[in-house]
Design goal:
Blueprint (H helix, E strand, L loop, with lengths): L5 E5 L5 H10 L5 E5 L11 H17 L4 E4 L2 H14 L4 E2 L5 H7 L4 E6 L1 H4 L2 H10 L4 E6 L3 H6 L6 H16 L4 E4 L8 H7 L5 E3 L2 H14 L11 E5 L4 H6 L6 E3 L1
Parallel strand pairs: 1-2, 1-3, 2-9, 3-4, 5-6, 5-7, 7-8, 9-10
Helix pairs in contact: 1-10, 2-3
This protein binds D-glutamic acid.
């Protein structure tokens, strides 16, 4: 059981940003990554549909012997983690926009959150705000179309820049001093994001926190691997092109 893999899923390549953080903090773990890119993006789908897809992804990873699942997608977590936890016995780690650390650190009292429609409209998102950021002015921005651009394998260039400008400039104008990247795809655009906003705006994502939480849950459940040689396996159900690009063609992508 201990040497069984960690399962990670996302609607596409965004979860690779989470996988990278997990690899660093848990170097002796096998990992299986599932990109449900045939159904990408999740952002505009109904809660019911997201729950259905998340259940299917979870079942796939459990069938591949995973001991724990990281839902490396804000949209899937905020709409389906409760459902997954009640339907499956293994531990789940989710990811949601890092509102709490931004709310603690903000000086202007104004925070920008870039995320999908599905995340911003979720109950979990409003719950987190009412618990940790009640007196903070949260500027929410649905980054419509951004996941699609990233899934095409575009991480910089005109299309990325123009789309980001449209979403970031109004937030900057409103005086944000923290920008929360509420989708695991967005850290892939960090270079362009940094070039577009003033340097004093702090960019926060949840990657490291999710990796730390994964380690904590593994330790708590005594399911740590002790492998010297680890294996990373990748699966996708759509085109493997962007996954190949982000992995520098270093791994075999299994098509399902
Ligand atoms: N990576 C997903 C997230 O963190 C992308 C959502 C989508 O597919 O729209 O929200």
């Amino acid at each position: 059981m201990n040497n069984s893999p960690i399962g990670i899923f996302d609607s596409g390549i965004g979860g690779i940003t989470i996988l990278n953080s997990i690899k660093r903090i848990l170097p002796n773990e096998n990992i299986i990554y599932l990109s449900d890119n045939l159904n990408s993006p999740y952002g505009n789908k109904s809660k019911k549909k997201i729950q259905k897809l998340s259940t299917k992804n979870t079942q796939f990873l459990i069938d591949h012997d995973c001991k724990l699942i990281v839902v490396a997608c804000n949209t899937a977590t905020t709409n389906s983690i409760k459902n997954l936890r009640s339907n499956f016995k293994i531990p789940f780690i989710g990811i949601e926009p890092a509102i709490k650390p931004a709310a603690i650190k903000t000086k202007s009292g104004i925070i920008g959150v870039l995320a999908t429609k599905g995340t911003l409209s979720s109950h979990l998102f409003s719950y987190t705000i009412s618990n940790y950021a009640k007196n903070i002015n949260i500027i929410e921005q649905n980054a419509e179309g951004l996941v699609e651009i990233i899934e095409k394998g575009l991480f910089e260039g005109d299309e990325v820049e123009e789309t980001l400008k449209k979403y970031l400039f109004p937030m900057v104008q409103k005086g944000i001093d923290h920008l929360v990247l509420g989708c695991t795809h967005y850290p892939l655009l960090i270079k362009t994001i940094k070039s577009l906003i003033p340097k004093n705006i702090k960019i926060i994502d949840s990657g490291k926190a999710v990796a730390k939480q994964t380690k904590k849950i593994i330790d708590k459940n005594s399911i740590k691997s002790n492998l010297n040689k680890v294996k990373y396996s990748f699966y996708c159900n759509g085109s493997p092109k962007s996954l190949n690009k982000i992995l520098n063609n270093k791994f075999v992508i299994n098509k399902i």
